[in-house]
Amino acid sequence: MYLRHQTRPVRVGDITIGGSDRVFIQSMTTTKTADVRATLEEIHRLEEAGCELIRVTVNSNEAADAIREIKKEMHVPLVADIHFDYRLALKAIENGIDKVRINPGNIGKRDRVEAVVKACKERGIPIRIGVNAGSLERHILEKYGYPTAEGMLESALHHIRILEDLDFHDIIVSMKASDVPLAIEAYRLAAEAFDYPLHLGITESGTLFSGTIKSSAGLGTLLSMGIGNTIRVSLSADPVEEVKVARELLKTFHVISNAVTLVSCPTCGRIDIDLISVANEIEDYVQNIKAPIKVSVLGCAVNGPGEAREADIGIAGGRGEGLLFRKGKVVRKVPEQDLVAELKKEIDILAKRFEET
Ligand code: SF4
Fold this sequence. Notes:
The protein contains 12 helices and 15 strands. By secondary structure, the protein is an alpha/beta fold. It has 2 domains: 10-252, Alpha-Beta Barrel (TIM Barrel); 261-356, Sulfite Reductase Hemoprotein, domain 1 (2-Layer Sandwich), CATH 3.30.413.10. An 8-stranded parallel barrel has the order 3-4-5-6-7-8-9-10, surrounded by 6 helices. The protein is elongated. The chain starts with 9 loop residues before the first strand and ends with a helix. Bound molecules: iron/sulfur cluster. Its cofactor is [4Fe-4S] cluster. Belongs to the IspG family. Keywords: 4Fe-4S, Iron, Iron-sulfur, Isoprene biosynthesis, Metal-binding, Oxidoreductase. This is 4-hydroxy-3-methylbut-2-en-1-yl diphosphate synthase (flavodoxin).
């Protein structure tokens, strides 16, 4: 377990971001928020995949109005993404939003900022300041010449100061960049400079393939440094894929405890079964199981049980039949055609046992 940098706890709906070693997974819907049915359909798929916080864009009065209906049928906190229009923030707050993403320095006159902060205070709603290397304030860009980590920190501190001056401290900050080393450095500076929880993200990271690699490199580095309290993987893909990648990343760093870990071998000339299909099928099967089970899928029994000693349950393929083993010990032989079904049954038993404890 990589311990987190200590941050202040910030309440968002019924969860607390920061102040502990938990890292919450979040994503953002791709639908028009005003289309309540389509948005809820996507929200429910995200919840099912393990998303713990969901953001919607609030770019119109209709979108802000839809929040009330959306909130009635969802189960995780809802975040409103607002860029400049403070009136949309006020409307979203009135309609029951759990968190607002808005940069106070972009709202305009002080009375507008005060109105948003007052409404957030009254309802216990936090504000996320979203610093983005691509949209730094002009004076900062002029000072540094191009987006730098120092410039991003300066921008974050500028927005933080506006809120602190109004005695508002329920703040979460993101320091996003699509350039991975820049984002890592910006988050590192932020973690040193203040103790507000950090929302991790590599922005515009790309497609499912390249975005997964970029996000894993950047966010993985930060997680290994103990930085980050909530995570969003941004992909040009179905947002459910973002949640899957985020969960896998958190598992990799032992930051998440209620997920299945799959170990599978790379295959080689010794193999007699279609292991790649089996591994993919099992990976799909365990995706939504919320239990800390380690499953091993190996191509052959030569090193199988030994290699999977740490696995709670596993299979090793063979010619016409395979082995089922627990903690590296063979339990029984299983005909090849029943291997996957037997493994699924055993996983279900372990998951049920976990649920009951
Ligand atoms: Fe090859 Fe067997 Fe090792 Fe898989 S488990 S890589 S099939 S030796």
